[in-house]
Amino acid sequence: MESELLHYRTVLTYNREYFLLIYGYEFKIFEFMDLQLNSISQQLARQKSKKTQLKNEILPFLQIIVKQGRNAFELLSQYQSNDAWLTLRPAIESILYIGKFLDNHSNFELWMARRELWKNRDKNREKWDSYRKQFIRDNLISKSIQKSTEFLELLNKINNEFAHANYSYYEKSFRIRPVAKNEYYMIFPFIDENPDVHMAYVFAFIHMYYCIIKSLLDAFNKHYHLQLRLRKEISYGIENKLKLKTIELTKKKSELIEICKTLGLWEI
Prior knowledge:
The protein is mostly helical and 268 residues long. It has helices at 4-22, 24-46, 52-77, 81-103, 106-112, 114-119, 125-135, 148-161, 167-172, 195-224, 232-252, 257-263, and strands at residues 175-180, 183-187.
């Protein structure tokens, strides 16, 4: 029995296996980061602190980052990069929120009240404006999270390029090929077709996730007076081998530098 949907699912399965052949090292680095992020959650949960309430409120956001990171990486392994960045969006929002909560615990109460504040915004404009002053646009930049400015720029880029059917997303969704005089056909690719572009997305994703973990470690160490440390396998693997791979790729294809810098937060 012919099934186009089943064929599509078979292609995705094949892509995941092929990904392991090409990106076995990157897969292992991401697995180390996934383990590190879960370890941070566990250590934070066990920490006895006067700031226990805020700690408990932050823990679910850490698990959102873990979940969205895993799902986004799975989409990357299926060669569906556009969907990967969209899936990652709540993780980027989460680290921005964590920064705001660490800056001021009252921001969490304000964030929790958002629905009611929006519902009653015409009756109490002052309270709604107080929310906007903390959580709208550049106000999401915090003192507690390193690179919060870069994370906000990344969130805006995801919104502009992957989250909405605007022109930049529209033009990437299909290609037109001539077949005869005044005759054309349209191709709608569901998976990444350019291996170099896909590689740039993979390297960008891993480095960006690395930046998230480093920023969280720094913030929690300062806020809770902890001594959480980054696994050596992660820092060495990314700052040395993966960095060299990224430089080599962007030298070969200079147009990929923007992906690595704006999505991956690479400084190359």
